[in-house]
Amino acid sequence: MAEKESNARGKKELLKGDNPAPGVCTSKKKSSKICGTNYPLSIAFIVVNEFCERFSYYGMKAVLTLYFLYFLHWDENTSTSVYHAFSSLCYFTPILGAFMADSWLGKYKTIIYLSIVYVIGHVVKSVGAIPSFGNHIVHVVLSMTGLTLIALGTGGIKPCVAAFGGDQFEEEHAQERSQFFSVFYLSINAGSLISTFITPVLRGDVECFGGDCYALAFGVPAALMVIALVVFIAGNGMYKKTPPQGNILLEVWKCIWFALTNRIKNRAQHIPKREHWLDWASEKYSHQLITDVKMVTRVLFLFIPLPMFWALFDQQGSRWTVQATKMNADFAGFVLQPDQMQFLNPLLILVFIPVFDFGLYPFVNLCKLNFTPIKKMATGMILAAIAFAAAAIVELKIEENAMPTPVPKESYIQVLNLADSSIEVAIQDYGLYREPIKAFQDPEEYSKLILSSDQQQLHFNIQSQGSLSMFNHTVQEMTVNSLIVYKTEGSLASQLVKDMEQKPTEGMSAVRFINTLGQNVNITLGNGEFINVNRSYGVSSYTILTRGRYNDLKCTLGAEELFLSLGLLDFGASYTVVITNTSAQALQTWKTEDIPANNVHISWQIPQYLLISAGEVMFSVTGLAFSYSQSPVSMKSVLQAGWLLTVAIGNAIVLVVAQAAPLQQWVEFVLFAVLLFVVFVIFSIMGYFYTSVDPEDLIANEKKRKMSSNKDMIDLVTKKTEL
């Protein structure tokens, strides 16, 4: 009916004298075609819709973990858990979308209605990222509401869009349909590639509301989803729409459930055993349906170990992104945002697919190696496990440069000697600082103090040029401190100040100032912020700045205007800048690093991205094609639902691990690598005993089934006619 209405509408438009668009051919019988081809014009709208939708989804998701960490101020485990809970929900909701499309609304209306839900979710999410819109609770509520609606929208339309595109082709144009799916897959990766590169730039390089612009980073994907919806609706008059055919998923579940309950019900009775447990459904369901379900359950059984691969794969957007924030991202002047590294995956996928299909696999075949689909999937698992082993090594190198984390009854201290000569420092009951500390010498690593209570008064003996001075300072537990020693009016003085306890987040820098001059100094930073540093060894608080060179900053010293150069403030470092003197309209300074800069370059993540992307091509592309080849035509949607469920369960595994077993990050990476290796062994054993079905046999059986069904129908009509 929908197709007839569409054709009738097209005829009316032609009768009105409307001219077809350039490059488009029209037919009275069929919908518009792209000239010289068998491709319906309607697929252009579907491909553009998919590109915009994937841009919308992956663009929003690329910055999601950092949004949780630095906007909602959740810790790493909570941020990771919510990220994977959202990802898991996105892959559970396709079952709902498939049910709506197959049993109720049809694919077209399901895509329209759920896309509207999708857009609303994006808008709510973007509004929740505006700092001035409500308090923290409002931001959390809006964010979770938006993500829930987005998960319902993106998951609900996932099983519909590709199938709806396939519906646009006539049966005799199977080759064109196959090529369409290649273009469709290309649009998915193109949208993912561009969005994962652009949205981190919108977040980090554009400042709004006084900080990172998450509202813009979410708003642009929202706009792309609006475009996706508009484009899809614009093609309405050209679509071939098939009415709902009934939900095969529901039929499969009913068949399995009836077989199980019927077997249990007749367990005590003396009924001959049946060859297969699904044969117990023969009293209610057709032999063909039972045969098809048997074939599907064999493949679904192989799916059982697969979630562990996705548990590793989807951590690119959570744990690996957090890892990137602790690294040096400077590429000879071009600074990469930590969440931009995710663009490597779709880029590598686009490169690896042709390389593997036309290079690696033919070479393996030439070597007479039987590289079966199951062996390819198992190899993909190994590559993903090695990728996480590589990530663990990188994490260990990062932690070598990390700040010590004080625990209860612990504190850390360093000494800054701003006097005019060397000093000797002794802390009563502690055997620290056995060597003299030179003036304006970069301090050594922080020294640990074990306290007897949550705060303790320490006695400091400081000797300079034969003169001994004694000071008392109270140290609190779980703090990092600097003891500043200086001379005032010819005598030693000291003060104990608290330092930063952890690295600046997102690869930012932090700086504070100590003013040794006799007048207050007012410093204007590059972002227009003012810092006032009191005279006579006043100490400012730390200011967080973006990484970069800060030269020729304007300063005022009384009525005099001077300039200050700080040089490079590097990724993840905190600095103490001591203003020592004035000369030639400039402030003289001494800069020391309290927290060392990130010394592991972000390029060290490239091997793990290479490995996991190669693993994805071998595992995901091969696995989906293999599972489809092993099932009858009527059960393709069942296997698609089963495949998507493995992704959902994989994300749920990460959620459980993050919450139930908080571990050091490198240990968690090793744990996942070991778990996937164990799953690899299990899957390899299962694959060894699996007997593959020839796809040509499936097609032949399907044709025989259809011919048999048609013959039965003809016989039935003949009998009725005779009666």
UniProtKB/TrEMBL annotation:
First-listed, main subcellular location of the protein, grouped into a coarse class: membrane
UniProt keyword annotation of Transport present: yes
Residues that span the membrane, as ranges: 55-74, 80-99, 111-130, 136-157, 178-202, 214-235, 295-313, 343-364, 376-394, 609-629, 641-663, 669-690
PROSITE patterns the UniProt entry points to: PTR2_1 (PS01022), PTR2_2 (PS01023)
Alphabetical list of Pfam families matching this protein: PTR2
Subcellular location(s) per record: Apical cell membrane; Membrane
Membrane topology listed for this record: Multi-pass membrane protein
CDD domains hit by this protein: MFS_SLC15A2
Stretches assigned to coiled coil: none
SUPFAM superfamilies per the UniProt record, alphabetical: MFS general substrate transporter
Biased composition (Basic and acidic residues): 1-16
Lineage: superkingdom: Eukaryota
Keywords, comma-separated and alphabetical: Membrane, Peptide transport, Protein transport, Symport, Transmembrane, Transmembrane helix, Transport
Assembly with partners or alone: Interacts (via extracellular domain region) with trypsin.
PANTHER family for this protein: OLIGOPEPTIDE TRANSPORTER-RELATED
Family statement: Belongs to the major facilitator superfamily. Proton-dependent oligopeptide transporter (POT/PTR) (TC 2.A.17) family.
NCBIfam families from the UniProt entry: 2A1704
Name of protein: Solute carrier family 15 member 2 isoform X1
Organism of provenance: Pogona vitticeps
Lineage summary: Eukaryota, Metazoa, Chordata, Craniata, Vertebrata
Gene this chain is encoded by: SLC15A2
